[in-house]
Amino acid sequence: MEILPFLLAPFLASLILTGIHAYLGVHVVERGVIFVDLALAQIAALGATIAILIGMDPHGVGAYWLSLGFTFVGAAVFAFARTRRGHIPQEAFIGIAYAVASATAILAMSKATGETEHLKDMLVGNILAVSMHDVAKTAVLYGVIGLFHYIFRKQFLLISTDIEQAEARGLNIRFWDFLFYASFGFVVTSSVAIAGVLLVFCYLVVPSVGAMLFADRIGRRLAIGWTMGTLVSALGVFFSVWKDLPTGATIVCTFGGVLIVMFLVHLLFFHGREAHVLQGAVSAENHKERVLHGKG
Fold first, then answer.
1. Angle between the 61-81 and 90-109 helix axes, to the nearest 10 degrees?
2. Nearest to 133 by CA among 12, 19, 240
3. Would you tell me which of 1, 56, 67, 151 could form a disulfide with 51, CB atoms 3.0–4.6 Å apart?
4. Could you tell me if 90 and 78 are in contact, meaning their C-beta atoms sit under 8 angstroms apart?
5. What pLDDT tens digit does each residue of the chain (296 aa) get?
6. CA dihedral (88, 90, 91, 96) positive or negative
7. CB neighbours of 33 closer than 8 A, spacing ≥ 6?
8. DSSP string, 7-69
9. 159-166: long-range contacts (C-beta < 8 A, 24 or more apart)?
């Protein structure tokens, strides 16, 4: 009971991260650009690293806006790289951007010797250190981003799920892609500062993948993803404090463990049932053919 007040801010932060990232994850999985969050998060971390290197306060407004500027550049590159008839997959550009951003961050880190702990937090996160002020500020920002996506939900969902239909309706794919990735950049820049690159990636992808095991509709996927993210966040923070483990890495491993359990449940109860139904349908069709053949 003594640690509950201490865990309140980290748990609320994890709920906020779950809410926005589970939604964005639906778009990312539908687009097939699984590593875009990891790439944008690494680009945001690179911006923060450069800010430290040139003498900015890592927790200051200047460092935040420089990091955000880097993500906007990445958003423009990813939006321009996506074409339905392009012969180079968009995922290739995303992978290259991640590799270059990672290598550049490593080079910058070698010169920023005075802030190594902060740079480490950007990679693995330190969500236990989040304050209620940070939680409130992040909640307001993500609320604005969520409202923006709700207002333009039809356009965003259409370019994510059916690009041919979006083009047929006259939508400018690159323009709406840039708006999507730019809003994504706002989220990632703030999330990396709270949770680190790896945890941000897990919050984006794992709940969406887990939800796809049990649901096809967007609404059900969101419900499952939000539920999964909430439970995993609570378990991860608790295990971290209980066993005195790094919080970000603990939550990431908890995500992996829960996803494995969900996959086994799907394999045992849902996949088997689907296979049984399919087998029954095939048997009925074969019986029908035998009957018709017998009549002939």
1. 150
2. 12
3. 56
4. yes
5. 556 667 788 888 888 999 999 899 888 888 877 788 778 888 888 888 888 888 887 677 888 889 889 988 988 888 887 765 556 777 788 888 888 988 888 787 777 665 555 556 666 667 777 888 889 999 999 999 999 999 999 999 898 888 888 888 888 888 998 999 889 888 888 888 788 778 888 898 899 889 988 988 888 989 999 999 999 988 988 888 888 887 788 888 999 999 999 999 998 887 655 544 445 544 545 545 554 555 54
6. positive
7. 78, 90, 91, 94
8. HHHHHHHHHHHHHHHHHHHHHHHHHT-TTHHHHHHHHHHHHHHHHHHTT--TTSHHHHHHHHH
9. 160/26, 160/27, 160/30, 160/31, 161/30, 163/84, 164/84
Relative orientation angle of helices 116-124 and 36-53, to the nearest 10 degrees: 170
The structural domains of the chain, with segments of one domain joined by +, span 4-295
pTM of the model: 0.76
The rounded distance, in Å, linking the Cα atoms of 41 and 37 is 6
Q: How far apart are CA 273 and CA 249, in angstroms?
A: 35
Residue 270 is classified by DSSP as I
CA dist., res. 229 & res. 269, Å (int): 22
Cα 231 vs. chain centroid, distance in angstroms?
A: 17
Return the H-helix or E-strand segment holding 108: helix 90-109
- 3-state SS, residue 126: coil
Architecture of domain 4-295 in CATH? Orthogonal Bundle (1.10)
H helix intervals, 130-271: 132-151, 153-161, 163-168, 173-195, 197-212, 218-243, 247-265
* Maximum distance among all Cα pairs of the chain, rounded to whole angstroms: 88
Q: What sign results for the dihedral spanned by CA atoms 12, 26, 271, 91? A: negative
Answer yes or no: are the C-beta atoms of 131 and 9 closer than 8 Å.
yes
With b meaning 16 or more CB within 10 Å and e meaning fewer, what string describes 58-69?
A: beeeebbebbbe
